[in-house]
């Protein structure tokens, strides 16, 4: 679903809760940002959403649906990913030999702000790119 508002653009997208989710999120995000004429942040946003969705699929278990919310207001792009797990994302200590575990460090470096909000049946991880 895509909604147009006076002060920006927004969309909510349900994603499959499986290995296809990250690819689906990247495709939807890239297409919407291009359609909205807000494509200067596309590469960073696509990498960030891929990391968030991959984390959710790997760590949230079989806890329901993934929902991606996108909002552009002025120059700020806000992405929110809701899942059914209360497990919080953690930026682990990076060891050079690690092949995994860098996702939240990437998110932290590419976004202006990010955080987590818990709700009754899970959490919402949000990020903002300026």
UniProtKB/TrEMBL annotation:
Query: Which lineage ranks, top first, belong to the organism behind this chain?
Result: Bacteria, Bacillati, Actinomycetota, Actinomycetes, Frankiales
Q: What is this protein called?
A: ATPase
> Which residue ranges run through the membrane?
none
Q: What's in the keyword line of the UniProt record?
A: Kinase, Serine/threonine-protein kinase, Transferase
This chain's source organism reads: Parafrankia colletiae
Q: Which GO terms describe its molecular function?
A: protein serine/threonine kinase activity
* Stored Pfam families: HATPase_c_2
Q: Start and end of every Histidine kinase/HSP90-like ATPase domain?
A: 16-127
InterPro entries the record matches: Anti-sigma-factor_SerPK, HATPase_C_sf, HATPase_dom
- PANTHER family according to UniProt: ANTI-SIGMA-F FACTOR RSBW, ANTI-SIGMA-F FACTOR RSBW-RELATED
């Amino acid at each position: 679903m895509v909604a147009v508002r006076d002060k920006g653009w927004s969309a909510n997208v349900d994603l499959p809760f499986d290995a296809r989710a990250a690819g689906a999120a990247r495709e939807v995000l890239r297409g919407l940002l291009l359609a909205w004429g807000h494509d200067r942040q596309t590469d960073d946003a696509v990498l960030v959403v891929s990391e968030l969705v991959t984390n959710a699929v790997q760590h949230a278990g079989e806890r329901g649906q993934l929902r991606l919310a996108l909002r552009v207001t002025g120059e700020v792009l806000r992405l929110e990913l809701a899942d059914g797990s209360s497990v919080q994302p953690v930026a682990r200590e990076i060891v050079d030999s690690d092949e995994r575990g860098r996702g939240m460090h990437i998110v932290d470096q590419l976004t202006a702000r990010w955080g987590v909000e818990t709700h009754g049946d899970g959490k919402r991880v949000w990020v903002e790119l300026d």
